[in-house]
Write a structure and sequence with these properties.
Rossmann fold; globular; HsdR_RecA-like_helicase_dom_2; nucleotide-binding; endonuclease; Type-I_R_enzyme_R_subunit; single chain; six-stranded parallel sheet; tt1808, chain A; 1006 residues
Length: 1006
């Protein structure tokens, strides 16, 4: 049944009426909205403005800067009246958002010379439009709906920059059955970029994480007046350093609510089980800032472990709110801030180690203070003993399971302790662990923190696509007597296996990897073995590109206090460093020297921390393509060899593979695996684990332990399907594509796609082939395919045929994309819904290995070899170029150029590149000459006009008038000539702009 958009809209408006919103059918245009806003503003601020003052107020508050508008909405502002007196005002009641007027306007229109936008439903808070709801009839793809809102916002005539709509905080998109919401933002945080990475989009959920999808239930749960007020005022974060609005996810909101309630009602301690990668820092930041406003609380200490996490958390907190957390360089500074009455010192980030030292009467620092006749830190802190202090522990499964935890509880009897963990300690994974130099039995998380306040497990996160699933490949070496783990032979076999599988695992080196080893000696040995193996490979094949490999482990002996602190949570490395420290030091020096030579850096072992930070940054910054880098691959790190470092708390979207040659279990295993499963886009379908120790039993046990509520289904949720299952899905998808082609009276061959009749058929082809491509991308990263399975895949989709299909897809998609662009902003236009809703996902069609350099090399190879001897025929070469999204705008030119070359002509790469540039210039000159002929314009004037547009990426209507003035046309004939000329120039301008937008062309695209 096809439900009309208008009836969905009416149902929603009725629902909002039930929720006591005031319905305002009279607010349909800008003037009515401004009149209503003026009334509400004057009533709230008890003032009567003159017309001139009101106009000036609008001019002051309306801004194209979303972040600035969001600040204005949340704060008290100043305005000078005509008589010079100041007026301090707010736009809404910021002290109690529930007391604002909540109204609904629908079918609101803004007319400008460029566009005729219609907004389905707007929610007004005190007359300020704060939420826009877009309704759809189809089973919408939420990404497409977002993309449409992005298109509206980019429209030159949009009203988000010039009217009160600049205050929109949230967009909601629904087709009645599925509802999504996302925060408004400035363009750089509000875009669909070429990598298809865009703003986070949310679905609301109940406290048990079940989704609230239907618009009716969503309105009830999210749009109730007080709730919406809280969502905007309390649960959105304005990230100052990035000028960005961030919405908290439902589970983060419930965690914060429960902590705050626990403190308000003094209900004791509690812990939050939120899986690794789910944004614990934002949750704890929000909890801390809400506690800042609670007068019953003396201090809130956010306690982290290890120096790098201390820095990371401090930077994260300061990212959300500049300067809200200072650096605690030593224990003395921590004590001073704990005793300070300054509001800035109410929330303190510190490490468990410094806190422990402050509370330990026998510490060296306290003893030395006593000897000098000074009060010890413990004596100073006595003043706080009876105060209510809140401690929030990040990753509370670490050192807090020891004396420090006990010391805090004894010293501050009225303290409330809250812990965050991605991997709680249960009976099953509690074990002995070295803490503060003693053996100590660990207790469970519940023993320490009394009660679970909210759970959001990895199972929930995978279902929500907040983190990825895992693909685990248990490597089985060939041969009758496989070497034992740890033997040198085994290590060499593992190095060879990694070199053989790395390109597959990392999607053609699009991503990077970590190799986890069992000891520092193992890490050193691996580093040397890689150097030997790669040298041998290069000798055998000069074209083979070696991998960039680094290693990090803590330096032994004389290290800085920073590094000492770092080592406190790395028991294996600390133990290793007691044996033959000199050899380890020399090995690390050599590893750092190799890194310096490779990346033109100048790190030293004495400043290990800077080296460690650089390695982390390089893993995080691995952005493809590499066009901006001076030497291909020079800036990238492919594999980092570690022992304990980087296996907890480290995040990078570009890390997708973990090679494991160490024993892992329980929370250690989940922590290590979770380094690989941050979401990027569809080119990263899952996190890859290659286990060289056959630890399937441990993996199954860890999954069972940490899956939370859905333990029975955990394996199928956590792990991707095995290769045979995905191959069957690929066969099905290919079958559906063939059946669709047959239904159109065509064969299933790529050549026939050009014969599809009508846009609806083309749209159906795009949807069918996209499913095929998604499965192919998934299989392309499987490291455990057997030769038989690879053959099956090739039978379903032979390589040349796959390339031809990709080329046909890109050509069809480009054509339909142009249709979408035409309809953009014309909500009442003749848009075909099926095409309007298409989401092309071009990123699936851009290979990481095939770039401009690679294509030029292949063309040179074709030119250099005798006919039939080149690695690719002319047709294969053209097919490859046509199948990659990166060349969409240049495809015709490159293909035409290749058609004009002769095999065996013997041109080198430099000659090929120069020839191609000449070819493009000639072609452009011919196009220009043909256009100047057709329109009777001097070619030099036309070329200057086009060059000026491309240089500024702005279309200037006055220059167009000037260009046409020598033709002496009447206004009617001139308008027709303008349209005809721009119709011909548009494709040329868009092509030469290389996908970048040219402002002002929208009017001619209609």
């Amino acid at each position: 049944m096809h439900v009309k958009e208008s009836s969905i809209e009416q149902e929603l408006i009725d629902k909002l009426g039930e929720l006591k919103y005031t319905l305002r059918p009279d607010i349909r245009d800008r003037a009515a909205m401004e009149r209503n806003f003026r009334e509400k503003f004057q009533a709230l601020n008890r003032v009567s403005l003159t017309n001139a003052e009101f106009q000036r107020l609008l001019d002051e508050i309306v801004t194209p800067d979303v972040f600035k508008a969001a600040q204005t909405l949340r704060h008290r502002n100043a305005f000078t009246r005509d008589d010079g007196t100041p007026l301090n005002y707010t736009l809404v009641n910021i002290n109690d958002w529930c007391k604002n007027d909540f109204e609904v306007a629908s079918q609101f229109r803004i007319n400008t010379e460029y566009s005729y936008h219609r907004y389905d439903v707007l929610l007004l808070i005190n007359g300020v439009p704060a939420v826009q709801i877009e309704l759809k009839t189809l089973g919408i793809n939420p990404r497409r709906a977002i993309e449409q809102i992005v298109e509206y916002k980019n429209d030159p005539g949009n009203s988000y920059t010039r009217t009160l709509l600049c205050f929109i905080q949230l967009f909601i998109v629904s087709n009645r059955d599925f509802t999504y919401y996302f925060a408004n933002n400035n363009a750089r945080h509000f875009a669909f970029n070429a990598d298809e990475r865009f703003l986070p989009i949310y679905q609301y959920a109940a406290p048990d994480n079940t989704k609230i999808n239907g618009i009716d239930a969503f309105a009830e749960a999210f749009l109730a007046k007080c709730t919406l007020g809280q969502m905007i005022s309390r649960y959105m974060v304005l990230v100052a350093s990035e000028q960005k609005l961030l919405m908290m996810r439902p589970y983060q909101i419930y965690a914060v609510k429960n902590i705050v309630e626990c403190i308000d009602k003094n209900l004791g301690n509690g812990y939050i089980w939120h899986t690794t990668g789910s944004g614990k820092t934002l949750t704890s930041f929000k909890a801390s800032t809400l506690l800042k406003a609670n007068p019953a609380i003396e201090k809130c200490l956010f306690v982290v472990d290890r120096k790098d996490l201390d820095r990371q958390t401090r930077e994260e907190f300061n990212r959300f709110q500049q300067g809200c957390v200072e650096e605690n360089t030593n224990t003395g500074a921590l004590v001073r801030r704990m005793l300070s009455d300054d509001a800035a010192d109410k929330v303190i980030v510190c490490t468990i180690q410094k806190l422990g030292l402050a509370l330990d009467e026998n510490s060296k620092r306290n003893r030395s203070r006593e000897r000098r006749g000074l009060a010890s830190h413990t004596e100073q802190l006595e003043a706080l003993r009876d105060k209510r202090i809140v401690f929030i522990f990040d990753e509370c499964h670490r050192s807090q399971f020891g004396d420090n935890h006990q010391a805090i509880k004894e010293f501050f009897p009225k303290a409330q302790l809250f812990g965050f963990t991605g991997t709680p300690i249960f009976e099953a994974n509690a074990s002995y662990k070295r803490i503060e130099g003693e053996e100590q039995t660990l207790k469970t998380t519940e023993d320490l923190f009394q009660q679970s306040l909210h759970e959001y497990t990895i199972t929930h996160a995978i279902e929500d696509r907040n983190v990825l699933r895992f693909h685990v490949d248990y490597y089985k070496p060939d041969g009758k007597r496989p070497p034992k783990p740890g033997e040198t032979l085994a290590k060499r076999a593992i190095v060879d296996a990694i070199l053989a599988k790395h390109d597959t695992a990392t999607g053609g080196r699009r991503f990077n990897a970590i190799l986890a080893t069992a000891s520092i000696n193992d890490a050193i040995e691996y580093f040397k073995l890689f150097a030997v193996a790669q040298a041998e490979k290069q000798q055998a094949d000069p074209h083979w590109q070696p991998l960039n490999i680094a290693a990090v482990f803590s330096p032994p002996a004389d290290v800085s206090p920073d590094v000492r602190q770092l080592q406190e949570d790395l028991p294996q490395e600390q133990e290793d460093n007691k044996h033959d420290p000199e050899a380890k030091k020399n090995a690390l020096k050599a590893i750092i020297a190799d890194y310096n030579a490779r990346f033109s850096t100048n790190h030293r072992i004495e400043e290990f921390d800077a080296y460690y930070q650089d390695v982390q940054q390089r893993i995080k910054d691995q952005q493809f393509p590499n066009a901006d880098l001076p030497h291909k691959g020079r800036e990238k790190l492919d594999i980092v060899i570690v022992v304990d470092m980087l296996l907890t708390g480290f995040d990078s979207k570009y890390l997708n593979t973990l090679y494991v040659d160490k024993n892992l279990k329980h929370h250690g295993l989940i922590q290590a695996f979770s380094r690989t499963n941050r979401v990027l886009n569809d080119t990263k379908p899952y996190g890859n684990i290659l286990d060289f120790r056959g630890q399937q039993k441990e993996v199954d046990a860890a999954i069972a332990l940490f899956s939370g509520a859905k333990a029975d289904k955990a394996r199928e949720i956590w792990l991707v399907d095995t290769a045979p299952v995905v191959i069957d899905k690929l066969k099905d998808a290919r079958g559906r594509l063939d059946r669709f082609m047959a239904s159109q009276g065509l064969s299933g061959k790529p050549d026939d796609i050009a014969n599809l009749k009508g846009d609806a058929a083309r749209a159906a082809f795009v949807e069918h082939f996209k499913q095929v491509q998604k499965l192919k991308v998934q299989l392309d990263q499987y490291t455990d395919l057997t030769p038989e399975q690879a053959q099956q895949i090739d039978q379903v989709l032979p390589r040349d045929e796959h390339n031809a299909f990709r080329g046909a897809y890109l050509e069809t998609a480009q054509r339909l994309r142009a249709q979408q662009a035409k309809w953009s902003g014309q909500k009442d236009g003749a848009a075909d819904e099926q095409i309007d809703q298409l989401d092309f996902e071009f990123v699936l069609f851009a290979s990481s290995t095939i770039d401009y350099d690679y294509i030029m090399k292949l063309i040179a190879d074709y030119s250099a070899k005798a006919p039939g001897k080149a690695s690719m025929s002319r047709e294969q070469l053209i097919g490859l170029i046509a199948s990659d999204a990166k060349f969409m705008d240049e495809r015709e030119d490159i293909s035409e150029y290749v058609r004009g070359l002769k095999a065996g002509e013997g041109l080198n790469e430099a000659a090929i590149r120069a020839g191609y540039e000449r070819f493009k210039q000639d072609r452009a000159a011919q196009e220009m000459a043909a256009l100047s002929d057709k329109h009777g314009l001097p070619v030099t004037a036309l070329r200057a006009f086009v060059d000026a547009i491309l240089a500024r990426r702005i279309f200037d209507g006055e220059q167009l008038t000037e260009l046409l003035s020598p033709l002496d046309l009447g206004w009617k004939a001139r308008t027709q000539k303008e349209l005809a000329l721009m119709g011909d120039l548009l494709p040329l301008l868009n092509k030469r702009a290389g996908g970048r937008e040219i402002a002002g062309l929208k009017a001619y695209e209609e």
